[in-house]
Specification:
Blueprint lengths: L13 E5 L13 H13 L4 E5 L26 H10 L2 E5 L3 E3 L3 H8 L1 H4 L5 E2 L16 E6 L2 E6 L6 E3 L5 H17 L3 E4 L18 H16 L3 E7 L2 H4 L7 E3 L3 H9 L4 H10 L6 E4 L7 E2 L7 H13 L5 E3 L2 E5 L3 H5 L8 H14 L2 E5 H4 L17 H4 L4 H9 L1 H16 L11 E7 L2 E6 L4 E6 L6 E2 L6 E9 L2 E11 L3
Parallel strand pairs: 1-2, 1-16, 2-3, 3-9, 9-10, 10-11, 11-12, 12-16
Antiparallel strand pairs: 4-8, 5-7, 6-7, 13-15, 14-15, 17-18, 18-19, 19-22, 20-22, 21-22
Length: 500
Amino acid sequence: MGTRLHVRQGDLVLIIGAYGDSLLEESGSDRGLVALERFLAEFLDDLPVALHLLPPFQNSGDDGFVQDTWYMVDPRFGTNEDLRSLAASRFLFLDGVYNHVGIGHELAQALVREPSVHRDNFYVTKHEPNNLGWSPRGGNAVRVMQTHDGQCFAWQTFSPDVIDLNLWSATVRAAVIEHLEFYVDVGVGGVRLDAVSYLGKPHAAESNLHHERGKELTRWLVHQVRSAGMRPWAQLDCDPRGLSYDLDGCIQLDYSYSAYLLLAVMNWSPDAFVGHIARTREFDGMLLRAPRTHDGILLRSPLLLDEDCSLLLERAGAAGYTPTVTDGRPYDLSCTLPEIVATEADPSGFSRLELAIVLTLFCSNFPYFYLPALMGEQGIPVELAKDRPARWRNRRPISSAAIAAFAASEYRAVIRDLFSIADNYGLNGEPAGSLRLTVDMVSTSVVRVVRHDARLTVLVNVDDQRSWSMSDHHGDIVYMRRAEAGKVGPCGFVILANDP
């Protein structure tokens, strides 16, 4: 089994994200968590790679985020002992879904049975409030709910299947602290705090998104995670709104990165990618960047410039991909990464996936790789998933065919090699402001990233037709793909050791 990773500032931190059933189709008689632990041990050996296990507990939908319990692993994935074993094998992040619980959760069921006793644990009123809030899924966040005492109005930000918790309630706070103690007992090392931008529930006609009351509650949650001895990770963008939470040392996500990375590796606008990395280079927090997560490519980050978003939608639309729309505006692109980067010449998409991986390793202090995307899962055809939620194709278990193709490919060894290089040269783990990188274009289709701290340069040719001469670049070759001495081929890259 892999050596358990202790995440401290200065350590290498690569994070792989997966669901409890991501490898279920290949698990045979094994439970999903057992199959996942075995795969990571065989694939990564003792490389210090953390695992973000997306919600594995019993739930009523939304791929685990409608939680009916905080304590019992979904039997489709395995047992609580399987979870403990996984946490013992490597550093484990789990989600803290404290904005809401499923209607089947014991806290919510207590409200349904005795609303007058438990109303203060939620945002519930007998009369329709003046502020109905906003749901990221479209429409209002306040909905009509039935209890034993009749109809009431409740904040249910994400769907009627959940009800939002009141984190000002002493009862709810005690429940959260008890749950974090359970995580510590299991061996969890870090907690991703889900949906914190919606924690604040305004009284007046204000937005519930990034409300000041929500920021205060987020800081309380971060403090509790730290007090329990675990690493906090807030589901917040690294834009000015996210920075206004003032979460020193807390991991935050660059939400627009996946859009800019796609513009680069598809050679639609690699200079836009370079511009984005340059604009966010001074971020001095713990910045996480992901080619893809379990969600779609978010299109509403303030850091995604309008002209770049329009270009992405134009090019993706020409390839047959349309965005999810909420409240009349594009919200995200829910296609899988491997399918959109695949071409007739490279139907697996592996060559462009390699470019996405190496750029992410060089441009991130916390690189995050969602396992289905990393392994090349392209998803079932769109026409067969038309009755499913848009994100389902990106969240479904990895198919046996994709697992077999990955296992037989050279690409599998390339990932391992790149992760080893990142480990050996200490590419990741420092605060973003300590990365000391320079990124620029050395031709219309070649991105150069210089990591001054690691004394490495990577040259990435995103053109899938033409080679590029690297005669002006010198240094010992550390690694190369689709390249040779003096030339980088189409969709190729070379890593050079900088002169001292």
